Amino acid sequence: MTLLRSGRHGGVNSRALFQTGAALVVAIVVFLATQNWVRDLEVNVVVGLLGPLLPDSLLGAGSNIVVVPRDGLPFLAEVRPSCSAAGAVVALGVLGSFIARAGRVKATLAAVAVVAIGNLVRIGGSIGVGVIYGKSSLVLFHDAAGGAFTFVYLMVGFATYLWFTLPKQAKC
Amino acid sequence: MNPTWPPSPDRSPWMVLWLGGLVVIVVSVLGTYALLTAFAVVVQAIFVLFLIRHLAFALTAAKTANADIERIPIDSAQLPAFSVVVAMKNEIAVADQLLLALSELDYPSDSLQVVLVDDASTDGTAEHLEANAPVSMLVIHRDADASGGKSGALNEAISHLTGEMVIVFDADHRPQPDIVRKHARHYGDSSVAAVQGRCQIGNPDDGILAAAISLEYEAGYLVNEYGRQAVFGLPAYGGANCSVRLESLLRHGGWNPTSHTEDTDLTLRLVLAGEHVRYDVAALDVEEAVTTLPRYWRQRYRWARGHQKVLRDYWRLSLTTNHLTVLQRIETVGFLSLYHAPVLALLATILGIASTTGLVSPGVIPGGYIFWPLLFLGPLAELGAAMLLAGVSRRRALGLLWFLPLYALSMLIATTAWVDGVLGRHYTWAKTERSGSALVPT
Q1: Would you say residue B442 has pLDDT above 50?
Q2: What is the DSSP letter of B277?
Q3: Buried (b) or exposed (e) across B324-336, using 16+ Cβ within 10 A?
Q4: Which helix (DSSP H) or strand (DSSP E) does residue B115 occupy?
Q5: Beta strands of B186-341 (E only): which ranges?
Q6: What is the pLDDT of residues B283-340, one digit of tens each?
Q7: Are A99 and A22 in contact (CB under 8 A)?
Q8: Do A159 and B401 make contact, defined as CB atoms within 8 angstroms?
Q9: Arithmetic mean of pLDDT, B172-196
Q10: B384 by DSSP, 3-state: which?
Q11: Which of A87, A92, B104, B385 is disulfide-compatible with A99, CB 3.0–4.6 A?
């Protein structure tokens, strides 16, 4: 008996699982294809913005930043895939394309902007701490404070996405 | 009635010693580093499985849930007799609203029986029901020394029931008038033993906690429960707004009085016997969210303690039953692991903090900080899909920001329940206190 569309299948709905797998594969492929470019871009933006504030302290090289601390030897800071906003941006894009209807482009762009800017602040903050306090402080700040900040901007990014896709007034 | 629930031997501290001994042996064989790495890999693999599961539910619900909500095929010629049962223990705050909602049920009166079980209330509920319940409703009183919690109260009603189906509500629920008809439409299929309806929070504006729980319920019913049916054909019979064929219930010996989550327990017994549970996303009722953290803790502790026990009681049977496909068996264990996942998440968090602060080498976690995105992406997808489906207002999207602290609290609650359960600490059924603030169905 078919009363509801969700009740059509008595067993496992293989199609739904396949579509989910396909969405994940698309997300992974897009991430792998773009992450180097995104990381390079993030480095260029951070060095471009922080460079004038911290003269003679930063040099961008691909996805790496040469950091010259005020005390101590220069060291290399790498923006790894897990430090980049690329994964979150791709996840938001793929998720948005599946679950939203109206306003999805505007919503996705706004959410991506929040996440990208949030991550630039995280990287920039970490590099700034590295210049002032040294390498180990950079790592600690990046992992602890930066990690917590990541959750915040991801949640704000997702809330932004929903803000643009939800109605102003609740549906009755 | 012959009970079909498994005997529940009391746990003892020996279980902790056993687990501790196992860890010591593994550490001595593999070393601490290898053990932590193995743990991190296993946890991440489990999180990936949960992510796929949540995503599948979100994508499926986003596609078809709204169409199912708007679909209204009710066969007025086929309306089996129903008994509505409500267990009530100290429910004076919500009694009047409940009586009103039950009086307004749209179902032929000769096919509808209402039974209210006063579970030895001490707040005047018993007297209030005697004075105000319509004469068509049957009021039963339990003795003060009666046991079994909600299950015991529901079982007390069984011998009085006249319906072919039994539909259960909690006292704080406000069923919509057409709800029995929505349940009834599934019983034309003789393989259907139980039907679950959708519950919604009626007091989302009663503070931050109620707002967050409201979003959680939308995700739980509009996406998760819907997805379990749409993807795996395995929705769960919940504790309220749920009906069961009396014949099936009697065959299984009634509700399990040794379980703190009699709903999940009955779901497993039905499914493992080859009977089907259906979910109707349009069979709507409204209930009250707890509004204080102590009440939240008590409610969720009971859910966690009961759910974790059901996993311990049924995981072997779930993996070996012939009534389910391999994927359905895996899904069943995944569903039963719902309140074990936060325990793993807490351990993973502790490991993450330890690696961040240098207590253990960062290298023990392959993939680094992938834990958290894996853990949160799935639930966020469910929450987002649910909010879009429910058409909640933009303002309520901000309630999403409370998701993180609430999940952290859930990790503590589930871990406390797990430790207490493994240690076999005594626990008696704890009723959720009401404030009576969910007054009007939306």
Answers
A1: no
A2: E
A3: beebbbbbbbbbb
A4: strand B112-118
A5: 192-201, 242-245, 276-287
A6: 999 999 999 999 999 999 999 999 999 999 999 999 999 999 999 999 999 999 999 9
A7: no
A8: yes
A9: 93
A10: helix
A11: B385
pLDDT digits (tens, 9 = 90+) for B346-380: 998 888 888 877 788 877 777 655 556 666 778 88
pLDDT digit string, tens, across residues B255-282 = 999 888 999 999 999 999 999 999 999 9
* Residue closest to B102 by CA, chosen among B197, B177, B156: B177
Strand order in the sheet with A64-67: A58-61, A64-67, A75-78
Any domain includes A52:
yes
Report if residue A6 sits inside a domain: no
Q: Are residues B263 and B239 in contact, defined by beta-carbon separation less than 8 angstroms?
A: yes
Could you tell me if A161 lies within 8 Å of chain B, comparing CB atoms? Answer: yes
The segments of chain A whose pLDDT lies below 50 read 1, 8-9
What confidence tens digit (pLDDT) does each residue in A23-49 have?
A: 888 888 988 899 899 999 999 999 999
pLDDT reported for residue B96: 94
Q: Round to whole Å and give the CA distance between B369 and A58.
A: 26
The percent of residues above 70 in pLDDT, for chain B, comes to 93
In this predicted complex, what is the ipTM? 0.79
Q: Count how many domains chain A has.
A: 1
Query: How far apart are the C-alpha atoms of B382 and B388, rounded to whole Å?
Result: 10
Rg (C-alpha) for chain B, rounded Å, is 22
Q: Are B300 and B411 spatial neighbours (Cβ–Cβ below 8 Å)? A: no
**pLDDT confidence of residue B441:** 44
Name all domains of chain B by residue range, CATH numbers in brackets. Answer: 74-329 (3.90.550.10)
Q: Is residue A39 domain-resident? A: yes
Chain B within 8 Å of A149 (Cβ-Cβ)? no
Separation of CA B17 from chain center: 31
Q: ∠ CA(B322), CA(B323), CA(B325), 5° rounding?
A: 80
- pLDDT at residue B430 greater than cutoff 80: no
Q: Containing domain of residue A157, as a range?
A: 15-165
**Chain A residue numbers touching B55 (CB-CB < 8 A):** 20, 23-24
* 3-class secondary-structure state, position B104: coil
Residue B434 near residue B171 (C-beta atoms within 8 A) = yes
Angle value at C-alpha B82, between B78 and B83, nearest 5 degrees: 175
Which candidate, B166, B169, B170, places its Cα nearest to that of B187?
B166
For residues B158 and B249, the answer to whether their CB atoms sit within 8 Å is yes
The verdict on residue A171 lying in a domain is: no
CB-CB under 8 Å, A100 with B56: no
Nearest chain A residue (CA) to B56 = A20
Mapping DSSP to helix (H, G, I), strand (E, B) and coil, where does residue B167 land? strand
Given CB atoms, is A22 within the 8 Å cutoff of chain B?
no
List CB contacts of B201: < 8 A, sequence separation 6 or more. B210, B213, B214, B217, B286, B287, B288, B289, B438
